[in-house]
Amino acid sequence: MTNPTEHALPANSMVESHEGDFGCSVMDLRKLMELRSSDGINQINVHYGGVMNLCRRLKTDPVEGLSGNPADLEKRKQVFGQNFIPPKKPKTFLELVWEALQDVTLIILEIAAIISLVLSFYRPPGEENKQCGLPVSSPEDEGEAEAGWIEGAAILFSVIIVVLVTAFNDWSKEKQFRGLQNRIEKEQKFSVIRNGHIIQLPVAEIVVGDIAQIKYGDLLPADGILIQGNDLKIDESSLTGESDHVKKSLERDPMLLSGTHVMEGSGRMVVTAVGINSQTGIIFTLLGASEGEEEEKKKKGKKQGVPENRNKAKTQDGVALEIQPLNSQEGIDNEEKEKKAAKLPKKEKSVLQGKLTRLAVQIGKAGLIMSAITVLILILYFVIDNFVIRRRPWLSECTPIYIQYFVKFFIIGITVLVVAVPEGLPLAVTISLAYSVKKMMKDNNLVRHLDACETMGNATAICSDKTGTLTMNRMTVVQAYIGDTHYHQIPSPDALMPKVLDLIVNGISINSAYTSKILPPEKEGGLPRQVGNKTECALLGFVTDLKQDYHAVRNEVPEEKLYKVYTFNSVRKSMSTVIEKPSGGYRMYSKGASEIILRKCNRILDKKGEVMPFKNKDRDEMVRAVIEPMASEGLRTICIAYRDFNDGEPTWDNENEILTELTCIAVVGIEDPVRPEVPEAIAKCKRAGITVRMVTGDNINTARAIATKCGIVTPGDDFLCLEGKEFNRLIRNEKGEVEQEKLDKIWPKLRVLARSSPTDKHTLVKGIIDSTVGEQRQVVAVTGDGTNDGPALKKADVGFAMGIAGTDVAKEASDIILTDDNFTSIVKAVMWGRNVYDSISKFLQFQLTVNVVAVIVAFTGACITQDSPLKAVQMLWVNLIMDTFASLALATEPPTESLLKRRPYGRNKPLISRTMMKNILGHAVYQLTVIFFLVFAGEKFFDIDSGRKAPLHSPPSQHYTIIFNTFVLMQLFNEINSRKIHGERNVFAGIFRNLIFCAVVLGTFISQILIVEFGGKPFSCTKLTLSQWFWCLFIGIGELLWGQIISTIPTQSLKFLKEAGHGTTKEEITKDAEGLDEIDHAEMELRRGQILWFRGLNRIQTQIDVINTFQTGASFKGVLKRQTMGQHLDVKHVPSSSYVTVAPVTSPPTTSVPAAVSSPTLGNQSGQSIP
């Protein structure tokens, strides 16, 4: 398979010429990486003569790495490719335009406009006008009649504008999203050795031949072969689907693959394949190629009715799993698993999206009914008036004119529909989210999933890590217990015995990852920089404070000389390193959480550095006198110990035997100060009704001390602080299973969970989310940085990963990345999330007022005066400013601190509160009163000609222009009212902070002046005098005063107000969502509609059968049979689409009515019959 990037041809043709330069080609290395374990080792040894020889062929040094010479790097990129997988092509602007055109209402409008255009060019001879019942045209009307095409053209033009605006919004959203993806990719760096120095390199810069340092928590960026490893375990499930961790070692399996996660240990590898030649890259290329083929197949398959293969490569984290044959055992097991999975509660699409979709569908239905009635009334009135009351004959030559009238009525009906359907809603959500995401970047929140931003506004609980999030993650040793003495400051080196000092220095320098180090400060007088694991950096800092040099020790014992390393993991909670002693035998240094290591110690060093026995009672005394006082000051306690093996080599794999009989050297207390801004942030959370819980691996006293400093627990509170063990004992039954009832008794009071394992964190998060104790389901946010936090981050409603300390695995599982690892940023995310919610509500309040008024005006106007006071083009203009610009203006309101002074809305809170309903109806009353007064009495008030009952192509009247102008100006001032939704009085508060809002209001006003003064025929407008303009403005400003009157009325007194836009209840979801992976509320609404439609069809058919039977006098049995059959009709859900298939269970008896319902392909587009 050739390399499908730009370098395709040159890469392969150059391999030949470079054969002399590098001892292997791209294809050789690709073939090598496809092998596993022993096959791979054989191939390396036989074909390349071992890993070291392979490094020689790739012209790289296993210790020093590549030289970093630009020419060499460039050459490697040309021969072996770059470490970059080309993304899928984004949709072009034209494709987005085409998508926007698919909107049904727009299509209907286009058709109506085209018919109107065609008919407007038809001129009947003048003398027949009398017979057709139309006034005879005077010469000046001729010009007007000529301009009849303008309306149709204007509608088409408006449609084009709407489509372009929608497409542009989609395009910019896509662009922002791509930018975000690029930023996330750029942020991923990897440790590579070049010229003997470890440097952090962006993943895309890695080339074949690089020596990469790998450690716990890394996501491997390229394929490679292990050169040296300590206790390395890899999670390869993203490639193989096997969840067990794979041990990697030089003897057993040195093949490391891109896209897999390092779960334990550390090591170095030589990179052998990058980009599209790596294993992940190959799969991505296949996926890319197969997607094109899939689409082709689907098209063909639809025609032939071939059932599609359900077992396509299931992707997880964007990487495909193995593609299984359909009828293999695994395939069948998978089917079983899928069936089981279907019973689990479904993950909803975002809450807001769900509420909005339901609301939009409901409004749309109402609009459809209104518009249909409008058209019917108009046509009936015209027909009855002309042919019944005036008794005119229908003349064939008049038909086109009548049709023209009908088309005009139809256009009015469609306009009502267009105004009724709030297509601005999805736009408002998109704009609001996109705007928030962009601004949240500045607040150190990198949002990976758009809906996480809005979910955060509903958060009721935050489970936070301690280290790095609540604290500064800048650790320093401040106390130590060495040789029976508790030092409250760091002792001077002279106070310690030389051999004790030596043990401390070696025990710390050798037994820590060599990637952890302390570098000189970046700025003069600053603090030294800590690189790598912060706890290890604190210990190395301790060595430096003792005036010793850890570099010298590491140079003496380089990483290659380490005999065996037990790396730190969440189960061991300790790290040990074994070295060979020059005199023979082995020495093991250990360090870890003090209570864990001390349990394994049976000796301790005294003041003179002599070994003393260390019994249980000594340990208890030490815990009481040393460890607890340190912990109660919020210090982390770490114990350093060692053990000598002098009687030959033990079995290293038997860990329990090895990690016993240790000798304790020292216990140190490490301080990690609380971030100064955290207590204030936590107080804000409490005010906002959000509970903060701390979940940490630290000892309970340390955890409690820090929690008190942060303000998570305050003295005298009735809250729980538990250790992981105790927590598990309280929530599990005898079988060791978690019981929700037991958990429900614990979590409401739990504030600190100490010494917790990743599983405890996951159990707690899952328990809180699944709990039904409160009146609302809890929305939980979780922070995590370690590899093992992945499951909890995925389970939470919003997962926050640490940008600085977080591992790649944690970032992969998260929804939002905190680029500064700071708890305060989470509070900012809550603020932005609530702001999104409020922005949408503001827009809804504005939008619905306009909808209600416009629909009622068009409807009643049409019924009473046979013509809508607001013309189609005017309605489209109102729709455009309302929907598009208002959503832009109201959705970009910046958040204020006041958002954090109320409780979270919760999942079931309706979108439109009663206060908002009061505002909507209140303003609608004002606007309707004004408009109806102007329609029916405006000509008298302004002393102008009436615009009512105007003939077909009559010129625009001043009367109707005033109505249109007043209507738009009232909307404009109501837009300012809509900035507040909780009944605040000052609607201008902070208006100048939102420049977009000011620009939109001003821009709309100027456009309105231009339309009225120069819009002419297309907008059905005519020029107004200055006094008329002032009256329009005066009425518009009246909106602001009326808003003050409305906010005076207490909402409680208006009992009749209902809320609208509720979330979906759980029962409805489970009933309707069988077989769906994600619940899409729009689909559910449509689906319900279809089921009702089929039931209706079925009933009608039964009735027709009954009538037919009576007519033919046939026996009654057939009908009964038919009716029972009707009861047997199965309404099946077809999960892959929103179509419903009605499949009969028994074969229908032949009746005289064609069985419409029983045709198996009804509603199932692909033409497959479903048994």
Care to describe what's here?
The chain has 1171 residues and is an alpha+beta fold. Among the domains are: 26-87 and 207-273, Distorted Sandwich (Calcium-transporting ATPase, cytoplasmic transduction domain A); 422-437 and 838-1059, Calcium-transporting ATPase, transmembrane domain (Up-down Bundle), CATH 1.20.1110.10; 445-470 and 676-821, HAD superfamily/HAD-like (Rossmann fold, 3-Layer(aba) Sandwich); 476-671, Calcium-transporting ATPase, cytoplasmic domain N (3-Layer(aba) Sandwich), CATH 3.40.1110. Strands 13, 14, 17, 18, 19, 20, 21, 22 and 23 form a nine-stranded mixed β-sheet that branches. It has an eight-stranded mixed β-sheet with strand order 11-29-28-27-12-24-26-25, with helices on both faces. Helix 30 runs parallel beside helix 32 (914-942). The longest helix has 43 residues, at 823-865. The two termini are 43 Å apart. Residues 1162-1171 have a biased composition (Polar residues). It is an enzyme of class 7 (translocase). One of its GO terms (biological process) is regulation of cytosolic calcium ion concentration. Keywords: ATP-binding, Calcium, Calcium transport, Calmodulin-binding, Cell membrane, Cell projection, Cilium, Flagellum, Ion transport, Magnesium, Membrane, Metal-binding, Nucleotide-binding, Phosphoprotein, Translocase, Transmembrane, Transmembrane helix, Transport. One of its GO terms (molecular function) is ATP binding.
